[in-house]
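Allow me, if you will, to draw on your knowledge of protein folds for a short while. I have a record of one protein: its chain in single-letter code and its fold written as discrete structure tokens. I remain grateful for any guidance, and I place the record below:
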Amino acid sequence: MNRSTIGSFAAVALAAFATGACAKTAAPFDTLKTANLTAYRLQNYEPPAPVPGAPIPGAPGAGIPGLPPEISQWVQGGAGGLQQLLPPGLLPPGMFGGQQQPGQQPATPQLPGVPDPTPRFHGFRILQQTPVLDPDLKEELAEILGKEKNFDSKHANCLYAEMGLSFVPGPGAIANDVLISYSCNQVAARNFAWPHKDTGLTPSAVEDLSKIVAQLWPPGT
């Protein structure tokens, strides 16, 4: 093998390494840093309307009567340090995060035939919302959501979203919306095609997102 051929192989290998090391942020998250972004704190679960004489819904062995097993397990596991995302008033009294936060309404069943004025984000009640103006914070979100390495196939078969993101890349553009479910450990895209093979969050992605949540909604606020 002559020197020029060896040099060509070396150049190809170096380019491949550089490409892998500096993987580009997948669209549409590559526009997130300069987009108009709103973050939503969502009520991940709504108790069903009470039926006279019916037993209280709940999964046997879940540990918290009336909650889906995924949420119950998430809460009992410490909720990943994200107690500020737990729906106020949903947990039994005395449990961490079970107290109503200032300015927030507790999670109550929706009665049949009674209009619900609560604003929603893709079907989930909005408990809090905040514009994200810090470009560094938006870039951090882009790094997490836009990289294939932050997702795998390990997730529950549910979507109880505790957080939502909506970002508009430019004037007249359609909003790109994302639902994030920590209790089910996965994300879902709305209004755009999810760019990665998997939707399950890796442990490192959960940790990085948790740090951002603490900046958006500090515990106790």
